[in-house]
Design brief:
The complex is a heterodimer of chains A (256) and B (347). Chain A is α/β, with parallel strands linked by helices and 256 residues long. Chain A is built from nine helices and twelve strands. In chain A, strand 9, helix 6 and strand 10 form a beta-alpha-beta unit. The radius of gyration of chain A is 20 Å and the shape is globular. Chain B has a two-stranded antiparallel ribbon. In chain B, helix 8 runs antiparallel to helix 13. Classes of the chains: A alpha/beta (256), B mainly alpha (347). The interface between A and B is medium-sized, with 35 and 31 residues.
Chain lengths: 256, 347
C-alpha cells in the first residue's frame, strides 16, 4: 500500500529553487531512502513531508488522497511522525517521562487526576522491548543515554503513538560505526512493524543495508529513483558522489 | 523469557544503581546535609536554640520565606525568574488594606480584590514573557521597578504617608487575622498559622510536580523548551500558570503581612525576591531550569530561618547573617553541581 506519494513536488524560497520536480513513494513495511550531499534539498523535502513547509507545485497524496499539510500537528494527526536530529527530548527528565511527554495518560477524577506512573513506566519498558531495546532503567535521565539509544527511544515513541509513516532525519549522522548499526536495526524493526519509513541520509552504505527504494537528490533536483533490484551499492555510491564529477576529481588528484 | 520482560522483576543490571546513588540524585540532598550541619552548629553554639519556643520562632521565620520559595522554585524549574516577587507581596497587602479602608468594605472584600489584582500581575509577567520572548530577568525587573514605584506612589497619593491607615477596627478583621496571622497553641508551644500554609503549599507543589501532567510540563519547559513545544506541550500556558503561582504565594504572604499588624509600610519587600531565589537554589533548583523540588525549597527556607534566628540566639552581631548566607549559597550550588554530575555519570 502506498502511504505517501509525492509527484513532481517543487518548493521555492523566493528566487531560490530548493526543490524541483521530486517524486517519491513510501509503502507500508518498506524503507524509502533519500540520499544526497549537503545542500541537495534533503531538509526541504523532509519539511514538506513533516508539514513544516507547504509545497509550491506538484501533488502530495497521503493514502491516495491529495492534500496539503498545514502544520507538524496536522502531519502527526495523519500518522506521519518525524524524528529530527535533535530528537526533541528533555535531557534531565527520566526516559519514561520523556516517552509520554505531551500525551501523558492519567487516572482518577477532578482534583485527584494524576499521572498513571505505573502504566507509564511499564508501557515505556514494554514499547522499548518490543523494538528490541533493553534499557537498564527507565528512571534514568534520558541525557545519560548514548546518542544511538536516544535515537532508538525517539523511534520507539513514534511507533508506540501509532505513526504509520516514520520520517528519520539523518539518524546515523553523528554516530560511530557500531551505534549506527544498532540504530539501523531499530529502523528495520519499525519497518517490520508495518510502518512506512523515510530514511534521510548521506551515507549510501547505511542506505543500501536497509533500503527498498532510493531517491537521489542533487542541487534540489532528483537525479535518480531506483528500487533495490535495479541498482548495486557501487552504482549507488557513484551516483551519490556525482558520477562523472567523481571521475574528474580522480583525474585531478592523480599523481603524475 | 528473561526476567526483563516481567515488569515486576528489575533488570539484573540495575544493581549498578546503588541506593546511595539514587539518594545522591535527589535534588534536596545538598540542602538536607547543609540544614543538618547548620542545625548541629547552632545547637552547640547558641544557648537555648533547642528550646521549643526558639524552634517555633525559627519555623515561623522559615515559613514566611518558605511560602514564597515554593512557587519561586516551581518557576525556576520551569526555567524562569521573577524579580518582582518581593515587592508583589507588599503590593498585595497594600491593595487589600487600601481597598477595604477606602470603600469601608468588609476586609474580606479587600482580600478578594487583592487576590484578583495580584494574580493579574502574575499573568501580566507571564504574558509579557511568552509574547515578547525577552528574558524573564528583563521583564520582571521592569515589573519590579514599576511595582516599587506604584507601592510608594499610590500610598502617598491616597493616605498621604508611606504607610496605610489601620484597618484593625473594620468588619472581618478578626476572622482574616485568624486565617492569615493567628497563633495556635500546640502543647504549650505557640505555632504560627503561616507554618501550616507553608506545609500545605509544599505538599501541593510536590503533588503537582511529581504526579500531574502539569508537573511533567513544568520540568519539560525548563529542561528543553523547543523539545517540549515540538511534542505538543503548551509552553506559554505553563509559564503563565507558573507566574500566577508566584502571584498566589505573594497574595498569601501579603495578607499575612497585613493581618500580622493592621497597617502596611509601602517600602517593604524590596530585596526579598533574591532571598526566595536563594532558598530555591540552596534547595537544589538548577538555575538554568529543568531540575529541582518543592521540598528542597522548604529545606532552603529552613536553612534561612535557622541562620537568621540562630545568630540572634548565639548573641552575635546580626551583620554576619549576610556573610553566612553568601557562603551557604556558594557551598550549596557547588554541592548541587557535584551531586548532579555524580548522579548522571551512570557509565
Amino acid at each position: 500500500m502506498t502511504l505517501v506519494e509525492l509527484t513532481d513536488v517543487s518548493k521555492h524560497y523566493g528566487t531560490v529553487r530548493a526543490l524541483e520536480g521530486v517524486s517519491l513513494e513510501v509503502h507500508a513495511g518498506q524503507i524509502t531512502c533519500v540520499l544526497g550531499d549537503n545542500g541537495a534539498g534533503k531538509s526541504t523535502l523532509i519539511k514538506v513531508i513533516a508539514g513544516l513547509h507547504r509545497h509550491d507545485a506538484g501533488t502530495l497524496r497521503i493514502e491516495g488522497e491529495e492534500t496539503t499539510l498545514s502544520s507538524p500537528r496536522d502531519a502527526l494527526d495523519r500518522g506521519i511522525a518525524t524524528v529530527y536530529q535533535d530528537l526533541a527530548v528533555v535531557p534531565l527528565m527520566p526516559v519514561w517521562r520523556n516517552f509520554f511527554l505531551g500525551s501523558e495518560p492519567r487516572k482518577g477524577a477532578g482534583p485527584f487526576k494524576r499521572l498513571d506512573t505505573d502504566l507509564m513506566r511499564r508501557t515505556t519498558r514494554e514499547a522499548l522491548l518490543r523494538m528490541g531495546i533493553d534499557l537498564r532503567d527507565v528512571d534514568q535521565p534520558i541525557g545519560t543515554l548514548s546518542g544511538g539509544e536516544r535515537q532508538c527511544v525517539a523511534i520507539a515513541r513514534a511507533v508506540h503513538f501509532g505513526a504509520k509513516v516514520l520520517v528519520l532525519d539523518e539518524p546515523t549522522a553523528a554516530l560511530g560505526v557500531k551505534q549506527s548499526g544498532v540504530v539501523l536495526k531499530y529502523v528495520a524493526a519499525a519497518r517490520d512493524e508495518g510502518l512506512g519509513v523515510v530514511l534521510i541520509t548521506h551515507n549510501p552504505h547505511h542506505a543500501y543495508l536497509v533500503g527498498d527504494r532510493f531517491v537521489l537528490l542533487r542541487r534540489g533536483t532528483m537525479v535518480g529513483h531506483h528500487t533495490r533490484d535495479e541498482i548495486t551499492l557501487d552504482d549507488l555510491t557513484k551516483q551519490m558522489a556525482g558520477g562523472a564529477d567523481l571521475d574528474a576529481l580522480v583525474h585531478e588528484l592523480q599523481r603524475t | 523469557m528473561s526476567a526483563v520482560t516481567d515488569g515486576k522483576m528489575p533488570d539484573e543490571r540495575i544493581l549498578q544503581t546503588s541506593p546511595l546513588r539514587k539518594l545522591l540524585a535527589r535534588p534536596e540532598l545538598g540542602s538536607v546535609v547543609g540544614a543538618l550541619a547548620v542545625f548541629v552548629f547552632f545547637a552547640l553554639a547558641a544557648d537555648g536554640f533547642l528550646r521549643a519556643s526558639s524552634l517555633s520562632t525559627v519555623l515561623y521565620a522559615s515559613s514566611t520565606i518558605g511560602i514564597m520559595a515554593v512557587p519561586v522554585a516551581l518557576l525556576m524549574i520551569g526555567g524562569e525568574f521573577d524579580l518582582s516577587a518581593g515587592v508583589l507581596v507588599t503590593s498585595s497587602a497594600l491593595v487589600s488594606s487600601m481597598f477595604s479602608y477606602q470603600m469601608t468594605a468588609n476586609t474580606w472584600v479587600g482580600v478578594g480584590v487583592s487576590l484578583l489584582v495580584t494574580l493579574a500581575v502574575g499573568a501580566f509577567n507571564g504574558f509579557m514573557l511568552t509574547r515578547t520572548k525577552l528574558p524573564s530577568f528583563i521583564i520582571t525587573l521592569g515589573t519590579f521597578l514599576m511595582l516599587t514605584g506604584m507601592n510608594l506612589g499610590f500610598t502617598k497619593l491616597i493616605d498621604g504617608t508611606v504607610s496605610t491607615k489601620t484597618i484593625a477596627d473594620m468588619e472581618g478583621f478578626e476572622s482574616a487575622h485568624a486565617v492569615f496571622a493567628s497563633t495556635i497553641g500546640v502543647g504549650g508551644v505557640d505555632v504560627k498559622v503561616t507554618i501550616l500554609w507553608w506545609l500545605g503549599l509544599v505538599a501541593l507543589a510536590s503533588w503537582i510536580l511529581l504526579r500531574t501532567r502539569t508537573g511533567n510540563w513544568i520540568f519539560a519547559v525548563g529542561g528543553n523548551e523547543d523539545a517540549a513545544r515540538a511534542v505538543g506541550v503548551p509552553v506559554a500556558r505553563t509559564k503563565i500558570g507558573l507566574y500566577m503561582g508566584v502571584a498566589f504565594g505573594a497574595w498569601i504572604s501579603g495578607q499575612h503581612l497585613l493581618f500580622s499588624f493592621d497597617a502596611v509600610q509601602s517600602g517593604e519587600g524590596v530585596g526579598n525576591e533574591l532571598i526566595y531565589i536563594i532558598a530555591a537554589v540552596i534547595g537544589g533548583c538548577l538555575i538554568t531550569g529543568g531540575h529541582g523540588s518543592a521540598i528542597g525549597s522548604a529545606v532552603g527556607a529552613l536553612l534561612f530561618g535557622m541562620t537568621s534566628k540562630g545568630i540572634v540566639f548565639a548573641e552575635w552581631n546580626p551583620d554576619w547573617f549576610k556573610f553566612f548566607l553568601g557562603a551557604m549559597l556558594l557551598l550549596a550550588t557547588l554541592l548541587n553541581a557535584w551531586v548532579k554530575k555524580r548522579a548522571e555519570a551512570t557509565k
